[in-house]
Amino acid sequence: MTPELTLLVWSGILAFVQMLVAVAGAQMQVGLPALVGNREDLPPILGWAGRARRAQLNMLEYLVLFAILVLVAQIAGKTNAMTLLGCQLFFWARLAYAIVYVAGVPWLRTLVWLVSAIGLLLILLQL
């Protein structure tokens, strides 16, 4: 497996871990019975748990773009040092983004999001 595909798998694992953190936070706030129900009239999830959920949803949005770019680069035979750098920037910035977002650090969160977007752009420019 190429390094780019390995980082895609690790990004999927990161998305899964983020989902577990978000669910744990929601369960702590509203309780398991509310979460296993149909979730109508569910109270808002606040604080770090709400931020964990928003970070997880953001990861899912960008994971789709990342996967498309990595898979197209693989299929087209366009992987190189720049696509690897883009994948590394994306993965490590997304890990930092998850931590910083849950911690509630707004400006730093935006900065690490920008780094992950630069990673996507580096891959795109190789196609």
Features:
Four Helix Bundle (Hemerythrin (Met), subunit A), 127 residues, 82% helix, single chain
The Rg value, from CA coordinates, equals: 16 Å
Number of domains: 1
User: Which overall shape is indicated by the principal axes computed on the Cα atoms?
Assistant: elongated
What would you say the CATH architecture is?
Answer: Up-down Bundle
CATH superfamily grouping:
Membrane associated eicosanoid/glutathione metabolism-like domain
How far do the termini sit from each other?
20 Å
What structural class should be given to the helix and strand makeup?
Answer: mainly alpha
Would you report the number of β strands? 0
User: Helix and strand succession?
Assistant: HHHHH
Mean pLDDT rating: 95
In percent, how much strand structure appears in the residues?
A: under 5%
Report the sheet with the most strands, covering strand number, pairing sense and barrel closure.
none
Enter the CATH topology name.
Answer: Four Helix Bundle (Hemerythrin (Met), subunit A)
**Distinct helical segment count:** 5
Uncertain runs with pLDDT below 50, 5 residues or more? none
Output the CATH class name. Answer: Mainly Alpha
Give helix % range.
Answer: over 70%
Description:
α4 runs antiparallel to α5. Helix content is 82%, strand content 0%. It has five helices and no strands. The longest helix is centred in the middle third of the chain and has 29 residues, at 47-75. The chain has helices at residues 3-30, 32-36, 47-75, 81-103, 106-124. It is elongated, with a radius of gyration of 16 Å. It is an all-alpha fold. The protein has one domain (3-124): Four Helix Bundle (Hemerythrin (Met), subunit A).
